[in-house]
Amino acid sequence: MRNVNAILLLSCADSKGLVAKVSDFIFRHDGNIVHADQYTSKADKLFFMRVEWELKGFALQREEIFSAFAPLAEQCKMKWDLHFTDYVPRVAVFVSKHLHCLHDLLLRRHMGELGAEIEAVISNHEDARDLVEQFGLKYFYFPVTQKNKKQQEDSELALLEELKIDFIVLARYMQVLSGEFLKYYPGRIINIHHSFLPAFAGSNPYQQAYDRGVKIIGATAHYVTEQLDEGPIIAQDVIKISHRDAVGDIQRKSRDLERIVLARALRLHLENKILVHGSKTVVFE
Amino acid sequence: MRNVNAILLLSCADSKGLVAKVSDFIFRHDGNIVHADQYTSKADKLFFMRVEWELKGFALQREEIFSAFAPLAEQCKMKWDLHFTDYVPRVAVFVSKHLHCLHDLLLRRHMGELGAEIEAVISNHEDARDLVEQFGLKYFYFPVTQKNKKQQEDSELALLEELKIDFIVLARYMQVLSGEFLKYYPGRIINIHHSFLPAFAGSNPYQQAYDRGVKIIGATAHYVTEQLDEGPIIAQDVIKISHRDAVGDIQRKSRDLERIVLARALRLHLENKILVHGSKTVVFE
Amino acid sequence: MRNVNAILLLSCADSKGLVAKVSDFIFRHDGNIVHADQYTSKADKLFFMRVEWELKGFALQREEIFSAFAPLAEQCKMKWDLHFTDYVPRVAVFVSKHLHCLHDLLLRRHMGELGAEIEAVISNHEDARDLVEQFGLKYFYFPVTQKNKKQQEDSELALLEELKIDFIVLARYMQVLSGEFLKYYPGRIINIHHSFLPAFAGSNPYQQAYDRGVKIIGATAHYVTEQLDEGPIIAQDVIKISHRDAVGDIQRKSRDLERIVLARALRLHLENKILVHGSKTVVFE
Amino acid sequence: MRNVNAILLLSCADSKGLVAKVSDFIFRHDGNIVHADQYTSKADKLFFMRVEWELKGFALQREEIFSAFAPLAEQCKMKWDLHFTDYVPRVAVFVSKHLHCLHDLLLRRHMGELGAEIEAVISNHEDARDLVEQFGLKYFYFPVTQKNKKQQEDSELALLEELKIDFIVLARYMQVLSGEFLKYYPGRIINIHHSFLPAFAGSNPYQQAYDRGVKIIGATAHYVTEQLDEGPIIAQDVIKISHRDAVGDIQRKSRDLERIVLARALRLHLENKILVHGSKTVVFE
Hints:
alpha/beta, globular, Rossmann fold, seven-stranded mixed beta sheet, Alpha-Beta Plaits, four-stranded antiparallel beta sheet
């Protein structure tokens, strides 16, 4: 149990004493807080907290923590989650024909910095198979047509369940997932959009950026919701362009952005640093 | 005539020999080119060039250059302008109640880095009068209502003509100028918009950015056209925000951005480094 | 007492229960925490905390808080400070001949965003007098020579004491303050250095940057210590340059950076968001 | 010969008519210039130019261009190079144990955006062998000790010559190449340094950055010269850090920077956009 930490992510209506109550719970059981971050949204009178403490020396076994904390959570009507830093989330990556984000994830995994295991790469094309298998990972091909979409999604869901997938990354997956599908992974699907949302939502943002003559382009990682390109934003970044950049140059420059922004968002999620707050996120960096 | 340079800004249909012909024109008259920049838009088959050379040692008097270059310009059907670096453009600044951009321009002028003279500050409010007069500049108050707008614009135009204004800066001016007004200063009015256009066009972009939960905000300087917030973009920049930033914080952070972006755009314009290309700009930085 | 908050800034050896004890102190007296931030430096086993709560509804009068908290502080051997958000710090700005940072501070004050009052502008030159007096502020001229330095510093210290100055900003002040002088304002003098420290420490960093051919320049705001340019860094920022930028261009670009970075550092200090940690800072943004 | 361009990179003492003479040379032979960029260093009175034109329709065969241009080059005492855009440079990548930059290059090659062929990966360790061979590339292991260094460098040089290597990338290669070695590839070796040079030159810049408490870290790509970490800088970029970032976090954040900066520098070099100017670079972006 050396070096393993517990993380509480919680939100509730704001009231006096919340920091005291939560930190006291940990202190009473001999826990040592290593990170604590708190945010109060005045507009909504909501309280958000992330607290991380060492299990080493903590008086409760990890399986006892949930029930020990539940009464306080109930009293304050918290929405809350409990995580442990030694759990390795099981991730599925969805991809189509643009492979730079997938590449990037494969290399981060190879360097040991991903913080998750890629249990499956799922695609509506065969383009990525060789690369994925070369890294010793499993590749699943689900070609999607208008006709078979429902059926393919059902098959995908079955596979995801079988593989006990915790989390889905859409690494430039060019199919829209149905609302039905999304219900199974609420707040557990991240997409990378290749523009600085809300600018250039929809298709072909590179061309849109070129046509409008912007001097900066961006990329946006967000949780997926039924409203396309409108899910809670996790991370964004930008890069300068000029009149000299044709659509192909914009695309090339954007690829680096997309890789970095997706990786950053994924890291924040996997380190349990994000709380969703309506259509927005609270990110405890 | 020491240290004065001439600048040619030109565009025309692309064809072979354009760089050679223009640089030969300068060489034949003993000119020394200090900057030359060229861009060919393949999509439109258009050629853009900016060339700057020293008048010192140049065989033509500055008043002879125009007519000497005209035949070549005509032959190639160029759109072109000729500028001299010792001319100090006469600028009018329009402002309403948010004074940070005006402030910034006043200080750059005071530091001698503006590259223009502010001949008038024009406002639909009295808020900026004291500050402007404190710096020894002229302030003109034109309150605008739905009823008197046409009449006030006519008075403003008369004033601008009387003051021989070359160029107008909308430094957070909260009135929309009529198409009629704009015709008198085509490509000679710069606006600073307090968002990363095309995101959050229209009113209250700070609130829009807050509501959408973006992680980065921006500012955009552009030439003013009849299509509000759609004129050719000159410069943009961005700054990071987080969930902790309330609308007031976004506003404060944006103020610094707006100052910097407006100043950068103005400098590029005043140094004759911009060519307008349809709804876009070619910026020779 | 509406809308006034109390802020505790504290550091001590790390031990279990520190967050709980501090937040419990506030909760016991009916305080509502609006911000709490905590950081544990594992390397040094040090604990740092900033906690802000509303005085409205708090059971202690503001003058009682200090003595009520002192026992806990003593028990944990804390270094600590208590601040109130309605206190307007009294600032002295030192300046020489480069006035852009002073300008910027004057304008932020004029816009009401400074969060402090400028009680004196002190200079070893007369260059800034007109500007300062134009804004209705007091200007003090202390020409410094090798011979009179000690004596002038004594006079400055007497003036600062008379004016009850809390904090000093060196806004491009070109004199080195003596160790003697610094002792009177430990951790209460901010300097803006016109390079990305530790690169180009010492004199004429613009020229140094030009000579080295770097592609990015920076500015650094730091607390002043006896080791010149080695004090704890508060804020830094950078801007791109190219081979086209002569020393004068680097200087002009840097000016905007210096203004922004100094303003950011000053804001962080005035909002009591900084704890000094040896030669480094903990900044709770 | 469709779509192939010729590129001239040249520098010489500044004099009148250089742009005219070069562009006239191209025009006289029916060439269509697609890019022309020029820079005059006033301090040194040196002229730098990059001009790119289409071979399609050009009156000279590509093998005739060199001798046709030589007289003008001689007359103006130019240093010059001629390149063609369809030549694929042959690159050797040197690497030790940190593989993120190598990874990145492998993926850019796999995506077809590298603009060069990686003919060899050379290392003083075996760590990268599997990865490199997995991508079907050749891996050469040259363990270096103090004793065998001269001999190993000789073997490396022989290999490089045999493979007709044009250009070397030090992708976090932890050995210092001898002056002897460097003579064989003057201006043809790029290194990525994991700091914002000249800050934190030498070893372990991550630790140095941590110890100094900077708020921004950087990476620098430069040509390698005998003076370690002092070669002409090609590209730099930075990322923000905070007190929360331990050395490991700085390392992780820096890795992304290093990948991007090295890739950018390599692209600029491979597109023949760089002229070395003493200890600095002229980069025609």
